[in-house]
Amino acid sequence: MIFCAALIAAMHTPVLAKDTEGKLSVLGGVSFLNAGKAYSLGVYQLNGKGQWGFGGGIEAGRFEENPDGGYYTQSDFSAARLALTYGVTDEIYLAPSLGVIHSTLDRSYFYAGRDHVDHHTHTGVTPGVDFIVESEGWTGSVGVSQLPLVDRSETAFNFKVGWSF
Q1: Residues 13/52, Cβ–Cβ less than 8 Å
Q2: How would residue 67 be classed by pLDDT, with cut points 50, 70 and 90?
Q3: What is the pTM of this model?
Q4: Residues 6+ apart with CB under 8 A from 102
């Protein structure tokens, strides 16, 4: 809730942007990881060539593994990032971001004649960068981010599409 309020306030505060005719872009998409996929939503200010703006995004995913039937692992994560956007041209933008990720890991297995269950959580910092292209309202984004999870670190490649207005 606090993230959403900060993002909305940042979108309406032209602190770094000189151009008052910028666009607001809303993008949704999918992230591909080594062990699965996640879903993402992003909102960005696109203020034109040489101008700065703000943005942010959320991402969530789940891994489920049962490689040999001897154990079951489920890992969930959610991340929120704040971004700065910079207009390389009026259509191409660079958006570095930094945020927080929270992940959980539940593992169940059979050992010494009985069932066991482990539960672990981890909160960490997640950096990322997106390359955004906007043309006549249509917007696309390709990016990469690092996701430090409970039991591993994943690199996510994300693809988003949306609309600017």
Answers
A1: no
A2: low
A3: 0.80
A4: 77, 78, 79, 121, 122, 123
